[in-house]
């Protein structure tokens, strides 16, 4: 028979308390680890949380070629389902050079700043408004932007020496589209206003046989321009500059970002 004296009782009690403390300490560690895994940049691996780099945001570069103001800081706060942000490149003196000389001269004077910015930021998507569609075509012709996504707000083509024939509006459209298609730009979203002018100079022009051809109204897709989508927004040519449409712009960017992600998943 084992006799337990007072000193043995003290030793056993201390041993039990130590074991209980150890078990409790381990439980706290596990609870803390599991709880911390709720952070966006942590995942659970073998019962422990491991940090992993957060997913990089999709960078949309808006090229402002003497275009109207869009509050991109405000638009960036309205991101819904996409993980993106817009940065703006303002082409200084673009408008004055174009007015005094030509669009071609304005493009050439801005070539180096556009090239340097593209190389430095390496954006995922380019965005341009109005005459900015000519900027996109020019960059594609210089092979600075090929096989890449584009967002166009109310695009209006203009003649560019040696690239876009300005003898008719139909040729301006067909040549601009040919340049973008030749360099495999896409996917491309074209958003235009619902006014009569926007319908005539953009929506109808895109549907010409020499341009993108027949459009399927239920999907906004075209007969010839694959991976293009056309969206009509209530308003005139300045719809994109209105405060009330900042949420609309955010939704449009959401759409193309998710469209691109879906395309990657289908590859």
What do these coordinates show?
With 267 residues, the protein is α/β, with parallel strands linked by helices. It is 44% helix and 18% strand. The protein has a six-stranded parallel sheet, sandwiched between helices. It is globular and about 50 Å long. The chain starts with 5 loop residues before the first helix and ends with a helix.
Write the layout of secondary structure elements.
Layout: H1 6-36, E1 42-45, E2 48-51, E3 58-64, H2 72-76, E4 84-90, H3 94-100, H4 103-109, H5 111-121, E5 125-129, H6 132-141, E6 150-153, H7 169-182, E7 188-193, H8 196-206, E8 215-216, E9 221-222, E10 228-233, H9 246-266
Helix pairs in contact: 3-4, 6-7
Please, what is the average pLDDT? 86
SSE string, helix = H, strand = E?
A: HEEEHEHHHEHEHEHEEEH
The DSSP helix count reads 9
Fraction in helix: 40-55%
Termini Cα gap = 77 Å
Strand content: 15-25%
How would the global form be characterised? globular
DSSP strand tally: 10
Class derived from helix and strand content: alpha/beta
Tell me the major beta sheet.
6 strands, parallel
Q: Biggest sheet: strands side by side, in what order?
A: 4-3-5-6-7-10
Radius of gyration: 29 Å
The stretches of 5 or more residues where confidence is low (pLDDT under 50) are 28-35
